[in-house]
Amino acid sequence: MNIFSFQNRRREMQRCRGAGGRDADFGSGCRGASPLPRSSAPPLLRSPAPLLLLLLAIVALVSPSGATSQSGATRARTSGGQYGVNLTFAVYQYEAARSAEVQEVTRLSGTFSSAEEEIAHIKDKYKLEEVEMRHVRSVGLLSEEDFNDAVLLGPEYMTFHTTPREVVRGYMKLDFQVRYANKPMLEARGVELGNFETVLLKGERGAFGVKYFIGAGGRQESAPVERTLLISITPEITPMRNLRNRPEQLSHPVDEHGSPIDMKETDRFTPPVALDRVVPKFESGRIIRGTVLLSGVVTEEGEILNVRVLRGIDPVIDERAVAALRQYRFSPALLNGKPVRATYREELAFAAPPPSLREIQEEIEKQREKEKEKKKKP
């Protein structure tokens, strides 16, 4: 799972704290810089070939008319002045049947620098069970700029459409819609957000979930299940010159020579979607921390070419990351419904490995034994 967005979030939070809670870099809008107006506004296959028409239909239904670039980002109007937003949204699943009730829009008491921290807080504070991250995206957008994203979860695509609105220093509104298998899963409009303020949006239940378990021989296995959708959204409101991961940087159509294809006002572009990811392999016991940013070109057949390192850790790690990305398989990009070559970026984050399911189960058993011992005592 690609979680580089939380790495960016951590760096910017540290920069803001270093500014003493005031805006850094000439009004970048660090949290606490200005009062936040609030209101309680109501929330509102594996084979690529057979999926192309389905994906196109889904994105067409989700997207408004207008020109689109990577992930369907439409040309923005100039309202919103000199500020934009580096927006991070993470997609979670959880088991609602065994969890406490969650509101459609929930404001978290803090913003977290890693997915693990955010999941731990959600579980503890809101008593949610079986929370798992499924997708994360970080993109820099202008006010009124539409952005479409897609990911294959289980047998179907989940698509996301988001539009930041009224972006000013320290404050913005957001529209966010999600569909799965062409069915509405979430629609939130006019959600108010302050700088680095994280909100949770609750969606519908669907068959996009996955459940992990210990199979034969102690191997970790998974099975598809129904789960409820939960989206966390965190904005970094910043001057437009500080926007990162602009849609055209994430992906854009190119010709057979790798030159960008000029797009017309009426063109519609959908980026490639990774169907099969490969984890880089390293010698056992080696501890690796950091991120490697890679780029390449995804062909009409769903293969990736011309992989190169944009930002690395060291030559050995970078080489393994490149080898892994070359083994990815994609649903190719679409330009007006036809497969097209397109650029692609992937940032691989390396951190301490999470505990295995067996280790988690052993720890749960230990806790149960402790509870039994406590009950036995008079």
Write up this protein.
It contains six helices and 17 strands. β12 and β13 (304-311) form a beta hairpin. It is an alpha+beta fold and 378 residues long. A five-stranded antiparallel beta sheet has the order 2-8-9-1-3. It has a four-stranded antiparallel beta sheet with strand order 4-5-6-7, covered by helices on one side. The radius of gyration is 21 Å and the shape is globular. The protein has a domain at 4-255. Helix content is 20%, strand content 39%. The model is unreliable at 17-29, 31-71 and 74-80 (pLDDT under 50). The longest helix is centred in the last third of the chain and has 20 residues, at 357-376.
Task: Compile the SSE list and pairings.
Layout: H1 4-18, H2 48-62, E1 83-95, E2 105-107, H3 115-126, E3 129-142, E4 147-153, E5 156-168, E6 171-180, E7 183-194, E8 199-214, E9 220-239, H4 247-250, E10 269-270, E11 273-276, E12 290-298, E13 304-311, H5 315-325, E14 329-331, E15 333-335, E16 338-340, E17 342-350, H6 357-376
Antiparallel strand pairs: 1-3, 1-9, 2-8, 4-5, 5-6, 6-7, 8-9, 10-15, 11-14, 12-13, 12-17, 15-16
Please outline the major beta sheet.
5 strands, antiparallel
Mean pLDDT: 78
Count of helices?
6
Strand order of the largest sheet: 2-8-9-1-3
The helical percent reads: 10-25%
Estimate the global geometry from the Cα principal axes. Answer: globular
Summing up helix and strand content along with how strands pair, one would put the structural category as: alpha+beta
The overall strand count is: 17
**How far do the termini sit from each other?**
48 Å
Q: In percent terms, what proportion of residues is strand?
A: 35-45%
Topology pattern, helix = H, strand = E: HHEEHEEEEEEEHEEEEHEEEEH
Gyration radius, in Å: 21 Å
Low-confidence stretches: 17-29, 31-71, 74-80
